[in-house]
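We treat protein structure as text, and this decision shapes the records that our systems exchange. The tokens are whole numbers drawn from a learned vocabulary of local backbone shapes. Below, we set out a record of this kind in full and without editing:
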Amino acid sequence: MGNIINFADAAGTTVSFSFSEDQLSFDGLFSAGKQTLMQLGSDVAVTCNGTTVTLAAVTIDELLDADFAFADGSVVRFDTSNQLTGSDQADYFYFRNSSSDAVTAGAADDTIVVGDHLEATDAIDGGGGNDTVTVSGSLSVALSPTTITEASGMSITSVATRCIGFRRFRIALTGRKRSHPVRSKRASVAPHISSQ
């Protein structure tokens, strides 16, 4: 292991970061499920609880699960394997490619970033808690009955997303500074998500 960079100590700075050697360490005030990653040119901004650290000269596609360590036991999982398993804490899952992925999110309020990589053959088990699935980019997928399960508290967020045919759970569509809660009734078509 290379450098261990304390997230709170590095707040507001840009740090040199080797994805294959370094680790960003979060104390007990932070949880993986509250984290966001944003590509800024050749750097990655990591934000958690309103605090940002920028990792220099690295892309999101290069980051590894082991690059993030949270004192509360929550985890970050990238789809480098097709089996992504969380903890009982608020975890962060990030899809980087289109393949059949299986996510077992666990009991807390997890964040699952699928971007435009959600496939009908994915299996996302939200577990307990109030999970968020974030969709972005150009996406149109007809969901199977097993694509998203245990979703009683799940919300799907995107700038422009339509969800058709979901039943048994509430979906909050977020975008353009408005949130539109939708209670779907039994649908005559297969569940479908479309994003532009």
